User: Which sequence fits this backbone?
């Protein structure tokens, strides 16, 4: 393994580059990160190119040619969440007591640096069983535009490793989601005369009680291996225009987490039908504004077996795990590409005011990944 590349320094350099997701604003937010990755990769003997997704926001594609005809995909994201309320400097990385602090250190500049360092190690080591392509994508924290753009790149990989903080565990399953808004309506009027009138906020409260009670109880019965049952949470509510005005409208936003075998659009249609049957007047269920699919990768596939072997060789837990949050892996898996998720740091530290990644995790993840990338893989499917 190359001793020249300092993965801690690489993460630190990335943390210094702001790449906050613009949440739909037409800003090239991740482009400086993409340019940094491309320049670093070229300096270490790899081919790199930028591909625009929209609004001057670029994915970066780094290629390390191999000796065989197949390609393995490494994918992670360039963007971070906002920095408001951080208790540590967002873009001034600091290493203390074995932890590297800063926005993105854990999610996901740590995994990105590990990917790059492992590829550089391979480049210096000689023969490689297949081509390795790393894609750093935009917009993972919002509408997934970066990973969706991969479909036009013609990569056709035998498998994909998606970089996210997993506490060095191998994740083969995660939930998807369906998010939509539910609007309740009433006639409005003066608050001094509420009798006989539908109060839109009180109406919304009835809907919330139903979703948190009877509906949630049914979901709890559908327990799945690795990820548990689907779930539904009411995450936002708005309504009312003044303290002395009966509200004529209230809106709740729900986050429905899906499991393998559930189509988010079908989940929405079933929920809408259920609510409209119960409240045929004054209720609207808008079409989903966010959908994502669940991931479930067959643990018997070569990618999973070889990755588990590399973890065991490093004296780490070789088991497979599921998580409740989503990743880009589910979008890649829609094209029948076997996907796993792996990386340094814990999801519990992602997006936190004092976001950090353990330095030891960075070194361990790099060693494990180099081992995985040296192992021969054959094509398999996902389910």
Assistant:
């Amino acid at each position: 393994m190359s001793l020249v590349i300092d993965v801690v320094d690489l993460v630190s350099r990335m943390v210094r580059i702001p790449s906050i997701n613009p949440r739909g604003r037409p800003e090239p937010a991740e482009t400086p990160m993409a340019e940094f990755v491309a320049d670093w990769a070229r300096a270490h003997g790899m081919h790199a190119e930028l591909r625009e997704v929209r609004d001057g926001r670029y994915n970066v594609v780094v290629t390390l040619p191999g000796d065989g005809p197949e390609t393995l995909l490494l994918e992670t994201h360039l963007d971070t969440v906002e920095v408001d309320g951080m208790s540590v400097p967002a873009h001034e990385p600091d290493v203390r007591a074995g932890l590297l602090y800063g926005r993105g250190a854990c999610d996901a500049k740590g995994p990105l640096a590990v990917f790059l360092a492992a590829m550089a190690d391979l480049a210096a080591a000689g023969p490689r069983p297949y081509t390795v392509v790393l894609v750093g994508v935009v917009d993972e924290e919002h509408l997934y535009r970066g990973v969706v753009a991969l479909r036009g790149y013609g990569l056709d990989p035998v498998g994909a490793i998606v970089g996210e903080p997993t506490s060095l565990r191998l994740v083969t399953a995660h939930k998807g989601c369906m998010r939509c808004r539910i609007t309740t309506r009433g006639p409005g009027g003066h608050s001094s005369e509420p009798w006989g009138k539908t109060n839109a906020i009180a109406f919304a409260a009835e809907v919330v009680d139903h979703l948190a009670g009877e509906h949630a109880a049914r979901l709890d019965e559908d327990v799945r291996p690795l990820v548990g049952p689907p779930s539904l949470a009411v995450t936002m509510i708005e309504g009312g225009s003044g303290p002395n005005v009966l509200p004529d409208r209230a809106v709740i936003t729900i986050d429905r987490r899906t499991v393998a075998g559930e189509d988010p659009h079908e989940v929405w249609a079933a929920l809408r039908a259920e609510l409209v049957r119960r409240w045929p007047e004054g209720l609207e269920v808008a079409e989903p504004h966010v959908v994502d699919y669940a991931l479930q990768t067959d643990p018997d596939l070569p990618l999973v077996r070889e990755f588990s072997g590399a973890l065991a060789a490093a004296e780490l837990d070789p088991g497979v795990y599921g998580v409740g949050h989503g990743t880009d892996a589910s979008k890649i898996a829609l094209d029948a590409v076997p996907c796993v998720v792996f990386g340094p740091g814990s999801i519990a530290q992602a997006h936190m005011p004092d976001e950090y990644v353990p330095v030891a995790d960075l070194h361990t993840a790099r060693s494990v990944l180099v081992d995985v990338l040296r192992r021969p893989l054959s094509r398999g499917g996902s389910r």
